[in-house]
Amino acid sequence: MNAPLAHLRILDLSRILAGPWATQLLADLGAEVIKIERTGTGDDTRSWGPPFIINPDPAQHDPGMSAYFTCTNRGKHSLAIDFTQPQGAQRVRELVANSDVVVENFKVGGLAKYGLDYENLRVIKPDLVYCSITGFGQTGPYAQRSGYDFLIQGMGGLMSVTGQPEGTPGGEPMKVGVAVNDLFTGLYATVAILAALTQRDRSGQGQYIDLALLDVQVATLANQAANYLASGQAPGRLGNAHPNICPYQAFQTADDYLILAVGNDGQFRRLCELAGHAALADDPQFSTNQARVEHREQLVPQLQHWFRQQPRDWWLERLAQVGVPCGPINTIDQVFADPQVIARGLRIETHLADGTPVTMVGNPIRFADTPLTASAPPPLLNQPVDDT
């Protein structure tokens, strides 16, 4: 009961990743989250495998539980309700009467025919916060289209700045290896919900939230969008290089790659001194970040030559000693073996309700006075909910 959001109940009508990511975070923060799933099959991602935590059993119409499902549904309850039927829709409305927030990601207008849209539910619960997540939002010429992360990464410009440069080997637009647009959308949804709840506390009124994956993708183009808006020039793909900072990329050493992230002129000077080329830091072509960005084609080959002279760990140790940001490019198994990751408790071992062991990633938020207990497992399909 000491958790920050222990006083809230969230009704989760969302599926796949963006909506469930938001409601999982709310659950981690202490809210009671009731996930409404399709009878028989549940959330689509229960069957998105292998790998599986529980293998599907088609003979028993059991979707099982994929590893994917566990990444975004911990700490929730599950109710299997067919709300396309009148009695199912009525059951959801009964739950809404005792809930604070509804999160859904159906197509625009998709829930209105069941009486589960905001306008109908606010009659039952005037102070309800209702968050709709769609690909393109509730308005505009694309409003009726479906949207998925990969599609939105392309349409929203992210793939145009991700991947190797045009004309180089492998130089094609590339998606990010994790569905970052869904994850960002889930985070924006969480922020919006908490803001709406704060407003409700002052006004007594609920609020409708219209959140679109495309909007979020455009908003999170960050410096790349700002670069275009300031210059009128659309940025392209630079591989691992940074459009505004240099050197800030991966380099091949004698035996492996490392990441170098020089963020200021002092760090660049210390890099040059370590490499035995201190004079380069005084060269007008390289002495400032602006100059280094403008002359990156002359600078980067020189740095690459330096780094090839010693193995990766030699560089990592000595760069760290002189305060130049650097790091390895870890595989995911190496990530979970990293002593810092272990020390921060980012790997969680727990069990499903039927005793099946499951390993999950912990929540990164660290509260000093009300520590999160983000170790509750994801629910089995239609796992009973108390007091609903």
Topology:
Elements: E1 9-13, H1 18-28, E2 32-37, E3 52-54, E4 65-66, H2 67-70, E5 77-80, H3 86-96, E6 101-104, H4 118-124, E7 129-134, H5 149-155, H6 180-203, E8 207-212, H7 213-219, H8 222-231, E9 248-252, E10 257-261, H9 265-275, H10 289-294, H11 296-307, H12 312-321, E11 326-328, H13 332-337, H14 339-343, E12 347-351, E13 357-361
Parallel strand pairs: 1-2, 1-6, 2-5, 6-7, 7-8
Antiparallel strand pairs: 3-4, 9-10, 10-11, 12-13
Describe the structure.
The chain is an alpha/beta fold and 388 residues long. The protein folds into 2 domains: 9-219 and 344-361, Crotonobetainyl-coa:carnitine coa-transferase, domain 1 (Rossmann fold, 3-Layer(aba) Sandwich), CATH 3.40.50.10540; 248-252 and 257-328, formyl-coa transferase, domain 3, CATH 3.30.1540.10. It has helices at residues 18-28, 67-70, 86-96, 118-124, 149-155, 180-203, 213-219, 222-231, 265-275, 289-294, 296-307, 312-321, 332-337, 339-343; strands spanning 9-13, 32-37, 52-54, 65-66, 77-80, 101-104, 129-134, 207-212, 248-252, 257-261, 326-328, 347-351, 357-361. The strands form 4 sheets. The chain has a 6-stranded parallel β-sheet with strand order 5-2-1-6-7-8, with helices on both faces. It has a 3-stranded antiparallel β-sheet with strand order 9-10-11, covered by helices on one side. Strands 3-4 form a two-stranded antiparallel sheet. Helix 6 (180-203) packs across helix 7 (213-219). The model has no long low-confidence stretch (mean pLDDT 95).
